[in-house]
What does this fold into?
Amino acid sequence: GAVVSQHPSRVICKSGTSVKIECRSLDFQATTMFWYRQFPKQSLMLMATSNEGSKATYEQGVEKDKFLINHASLTLSTLTVTSAHPEDSSFYICSARGTGPKTEAFFGQGTRLTVV
Amino acid sequence: AQSVTQPDIHITVSEGASLELRCNYSYGATPYLFWYVQSPGQGLQLLLKYFSGDTLVQGIKGFEAEFKRSQSSFNLRKPSVHWSDAAEYFCAVGARPSNTGKLIFGQGTTLQVKP
It folds into this structure.
């Protein structure tokens, strides 16, 4: 399957600072990327959908000013958690999808964010 | 509203025993169906998917799943479990017909394998 690389795998930041997470499709062009959040022992909740060159679409309840998503190229999307607080600590996972009706999305390895 | 239910939060099986993980969905039509596996602290790996055609789907690592429209189910099975199968398993649905890649996940089932 296709490869999606997410970086960093772990990050610790101080409360009030911002942190950027990158999601790259290494061997295909990702027209659409998705960002999920996963709390410990829980399922994945979709945060937002981003299409290359356009604004991200956020799910209900997700603060777009806090979770900034940029999808500037067909191989890179970034999630920036602004003014991070301890409650933002979580596991963030991206997925990327190419084109075609039967193309599934491929997942990155995830990023463990800890805000102290 | 669309939803996915995995009734079993935690399952323990002995190595070599058979396995079935349950998944039920609620959707207006037949969705695209997926099973993923997640090891601790890792991303998700696709085990198998159902888009159309044969309702018995073969996947990687010896897994298979059967789509049953009448029961709105997509249960995952493996005839003989290996210790390395211990992980978290997620069932997910994707919307038709666009298949944008946006997925709704079940709560997950933790599989423990006894030696």
